[in-house]
Amino acid sequence: xxxxxxxxxxxxxxxxxxxxxxxxxxxxxxxxxxxxxxxxxxxxxxxxxxxxxxxxxxxxxxxxxxxxxxxxxxxxxxxxxxxxxxxxxxxxxxxxxxxxxxxxxxxxxxxxxxxxxxxxxxxxxxxxxxxxxxxxxxxxxxxxxxxxxxxxxxxxxxxxxxxxxxxxxxxxxxxxxxxxxxxxxxxxxxxxxxxxxxxxxxxxxxxxxxxxxxxxxxxxxxxxxxxxxxxxxxxxxxxxxxxxxxxxxxxxxxxxxxxxxxxxxxxxxxxxxxxxxxxxxxxxxxxxxxxxxxxxxxxxxxxxxxxxxxxxxxxxxxx
Length: 319
What we know:
It contains 8 helices and 9 strands. By secondary structure, the protein is α+β, with helices and mostly antiparallel strands. The protein has 3 domains: 3-159, GAF domain (Beta-Lactamase); 162-231, Helix Hairpins, CATH 1.10.287; 239-318, 2-Layer Sandwich (Heat Shock Protein 90). It starts with a helix and ends with a strand.
């Protein structure tokens, strides 16, 4: 067989296997090309990777599909079942049931045995060159099937991880919501005590002792709710034209009790003129509030926390 003919057909086979799209159709094209290298009256590819249902592709003329399917499945079992794995080659009687007197059957290995490639014909015999060319094609098909299996497994694992992540987000949202509900009356009670005033310092200390962990817990639960909303795509933004200075003032006032508890000195420097920006006021205040919370967390007691709001060209900066 001319070398240029072999090279051209093998190149066509490689081109047919260059994409995972329409994989079954591409494998059929490869079996069609194989006829140009290894002539056959019947060609069959049995794909039987571990843990997957068997798949059979048969290109044939005049012979029953069932006989090829049954014999190849039996051969595959003989090659893979533990009872026969370390025995001699499969029984010749099994292979003799194939429909054509001249045939070749090669394993498809990638790296484990994942299938069989069969060709058969009624007249003539197969040569060593035919066997060598069939082995080359079997290797190409094996590499392609292995890559397809990897992609299918990766897709399956991705869907499993995606489902687990969604379940986790739903659980966190439910947990944060359920834990936040009983905090509301506690916070309301503390606020009422603060408004009424406490005549004794000991009662003030008890009130503050309740207020601090409740406030911190509510903040953590709010963060959990926000994370779950973001991951589930349920965050709704309401962009408005607003003065960034007002946003910072709102965040500062919300976090001032935290600063006072830690004896922090809070210095806020704002631009004298309005800093107009477009954004969601609640979320922007939350961002600034998170910065202040982190500053309070990592600044030693009695330290100084500075907030600077400046305009730089067409940008507004909070530092």
